[in-house]
């Protein structure tokens, strides 16, 4: 079963699956597509809800053993770390928002890389004598392109699709915390 929902909804779905004996039977695997993961402390133990009962938390912990989470891979390079620090600084100074332990979403860095890609394609189009209003030419200049962005190497294929990196998270049976099992 594939799930793409907020963490509390995923938890409720898994608890319902537990009630239907779908967890312990070994016949079902649940995949969670997590769009805004940052491997924060809360997402390391998504089965635990502080204001829930100990019994439901224990059932949820058991239910999460049948869950694998696919999420965007968080970059681990200096450019990303510097960018994250700057985003957090601006968020606090201009918008009075504090991230705390929360990481900057990989979607924010992907948008930044998209603007870089647009700039590269626009410059390439103009250098060939093209027009800045020729959207088709600019888009075609984005295809089959590789460049270094905030997230690392950015690869755009012949169809204009970004070849993205993902991480597969699984719950460690000893610590009961989610961790990156592999990157794809």
Automatic annotation (TrEMBL):
<dbReference type="GO" id="GO:0007165">
    <property type="term" value="P:signal transduction"/>
</dbReference>
<protein>
    <recommendedName>
        <fullName>Receptor ligand binding region domain-containing protein</fullName>
    </recommendedName>
</protein>
<keyword id="KW-0325">Glycoprotein</keyword>
<dbReference type="InterPro" id="IPR052612">
    <property type="entry name" value="ANP_Clearance_Receptor"/>
</dbReference>
<keyword id="KW-0732">Signal</keyword>
<dbReference type="InterPro" id="IPR001170">
    <property type="entry name" value="ANPR/GUC"/>
</dbReference>
<keyword id="KW-0675">Receptor</keyword>
<dbReference type="Pfam" id="PF01094">
    <property type="entry name" value="ANF_receptor"/>
</dbReference>
<feature type="domain" description="Receptor ligand binding region">
    <location>
        <begin position="2"/>
        <end position="173"/>
    </location>
</feature>
<keyword id="KW-0812">Transmembrane</keyword>
<dbReference type="GO" id="GO:0016941">
    <property type="term" value="F:natriuretic peptide receptor activity"/>
</dbReference>
<dbReference type="InterPro" id="IPR001828">
    <property type="entry name" value="ANF_lig-bd_rcpt"/>
</dbReference>
<keyword id="KW-0472">Membrane</keyword>
<dbReference type="GO" id="GO:0017046">
    <property type="term" value="F:peptide hormone binding"/>
</dbReference>
<keyword id="KW-1133">Transmembrane helix</keyword>
<dbReference type="GO" id="GO:0016020">
    <property type="term" value="C:membrane"/>
</dbReference>
<dbReference type="InterPro" id="IPR028082">
    <property type="entry name" value="Peripla_BP_I"/>
</dbReference>
């Amino acid at each position: 079963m594939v799930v793409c929902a907020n963490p509390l909804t995923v938890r409720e779905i898994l608890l319902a699956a537990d009630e239907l004996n779908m967890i312990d039977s070994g016949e079902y695997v649940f995949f969670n597509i997590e769009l805004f993961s940052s491997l924060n402390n809360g997402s390391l133990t998504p089965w635990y809800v502080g204001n829930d009962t100990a019994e439901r938390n224990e059932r949820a912990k058991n239910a999460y053993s049948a869950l694998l989470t696919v999420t965007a891979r968080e970059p681990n390079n200096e450019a990303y770390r510097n960018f994250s620090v700057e985003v957090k600084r601006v968020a606090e100074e201009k918008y009075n928002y504090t991230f705390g332990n929360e990481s900057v979403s990989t979607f924010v860095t992907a948008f930044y890389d998209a603007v870089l890609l647009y700039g590269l394609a626009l410059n390439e189009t103009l250098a060939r004598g093209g027009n800045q209003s020729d959207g088709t030419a600019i888009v075609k200049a984005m295809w089959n392109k590789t460049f270094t962005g905030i997230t690392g190497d950015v690869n755009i294929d012949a169809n204009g699709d970004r070849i993205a990196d993902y991480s597969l998270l699984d719950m460690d049976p000893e610590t009961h915390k989610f961790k990156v099992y592999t990157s794809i």
